[in-house]
Amino acid sequence: MNETQTITFSIPSRLELLPVLDRLVQGINAEMGFEDEEADAISISIIEAGTNAIQHGHKRDASKIVDFRFDLHDDRLEVTVHDSGPGFDIDAVTEADPTLPDGLLRCSGRGIFIMRQMMDRVDFDFSRGTSVRLLKQKRTNGRA
Amino acid sequence: MNETQTITFSIPSRLELLPVLDRLVQGINAEMGFEDEEADAISISIIEAGTNAIQHGHKRDASKIVDFRFDLHDDRLEVTVHDSGPGFDIDAVTEADPTLPDGLLRCSGRGIFIMRQMMDRVDFDFSRGTSVRLLKQKRTNGRA
Amino acid sequence: MKLTHRIEGDALILNLDGQLTGGPEADQLVTKIRSAVESGIRLVILDMEGITWVNSTGLGKLIASHLSLRQSGGALRFVRVPRRIATILGVTRLNTVFEIYPTEGDARRAQLTGPPR
Amino acid sequence: MKLTHRIEGDALILNLDGQLTGGPEADQLVTKIRSAVESGIRLVILDMEGITWVNSTGLGKLIASHLSLRQSGGALRFVRVPRRIATILGVTRLNTVFEIYPTEGDARRAQLTGPPR
Ligand SMILES: Nc1ncnc2c1ncn2[C@@H]1O[C@H](COP(=O)(O)OP(=O)(O)O)[C@@H](O)[C@H]1O
Ligand SMILES: Nc1ncnc2c1ncn2[C@@H]1O[C@H](COP(=O)(O)OP(=O)(O)O)[C@@H](O)[C@H]1O
Predict the structure, then answer these.
(1) Ligand 1, closest atom to CA A85?
(2) In this predicted structure, what is the pLDDT of residue C66?
């Protein structure tokens, strides 16, 4: 492929639909040539973002729709996950490192940390609901 | 699930993206509880409809988008595949049965036949581009 | 689709992997079979195990390949056909014209006398 | 997620299948473990082979289960952890607190003296 291809996907806010998202992402990973750990990292991160949109953004209200946008570039995958919820204070979340001894066994607060560990870039935009933008670069040996 | 859930999906008109659609449909089949031959029938038919939208509807012009809409009902799956192409004469297509001896080895003209064989219902709507609506009922032993 | 091939005796064996659609890779299959026919090959065996799906355009390519071998007195034989592909061959009744065998050995042993009973 | 269980000697063995998310099935896991603890069970083995993925909410449920066993002097042990789950346990460093063994046999043989070295 020589130009960006955009795939869009939307689901009602139900955690039970996350496995459908997972399958879709597997297909996109295969099409992009992402494999093994990289493919896992992408799947896991997108599912975390989808979980947050459903759980925190929409409080599991199935009448609200979560939108996914996948931009397949030659050298990278960009994914935007959008919910229409109230947003939140990202700086407060960022301060709490769940791998420090006193955070390690907390039962929540790990999703955004996981995304940041696994993706090359994670940005938030609260201008119109919450949008999380995830970016994964292809390793250069993938293409000449 | 107790009410209809609608999932939407859109791709640029590239045959290379059909495997991504295939994975998505696998996920939807799993969520709906469609298995084995039934799941195959649904996947095959949706891919045929997607192929036609890309090849005939959009002449593989990647700037044109094919839209898929999946309505997951308790008792059935309804799928609509939409392209913005010029439409075609469905009655002319319907006349040619590709399983009759002189049609059996024609190299084309099998897609719509396959959909009709494999789904419970196939409707066309040419009011705004081409929309193909595919319906598959769940067997009643699937749910009480 | 990925296509690997080997020649064994008088047969060309093609291993297919992935999707058989109407894309350029499917044309590659038709071309490969045509040039094998030109170089005197009469038996082509398609190992379908790695094929995840075929659409109707891909079926058209298989028909074209089948016909080009038939016209030269040869045969195209399918082996290790996955369930999903078998389903589509059944619905289109192409299973009544294509020669389908369980294994490569079966396909090689059968005479070049037309489809199996 | 599907959950099947069996009791063997002093251990409860749970087989998980599917996705471990924050849904009601995950709560079912926590409840099952709590009631096992109340009935005197000290060792719970989670066979993860059939788990296709876990999200962070599911991790929270695993942590809750781990803590409830710890508080009663018992242990939650993970066996046959798929690559994708191992990756997420590594990134979150939960692999430094969870007790992870290759097989059920290994998990049963280990003493109830805390995590493996
Ligand atoms: N899409 C969202 N909408 C509203 N709040 C969110 C969203 N995503 C995350 N948050 C807030 O950020 C916090 C941290 O999120 P996260 O790191 O994913 O952990 P967890 O989901 O386990 O709490 C959440 O508890 C929630 O308050
Ligand atoms: N979405 C579409 N837009 C325009 N024409 C279409 C579309 N779908 C089908 N057709 C027309 O109907 C014919 C038969 O389609 P089909 O049965 O799928 O077989 P094939 O695609 O192999 O020709 C096509 O050749 C084409 O002319």
Answers:
(1) 3
(2) 94
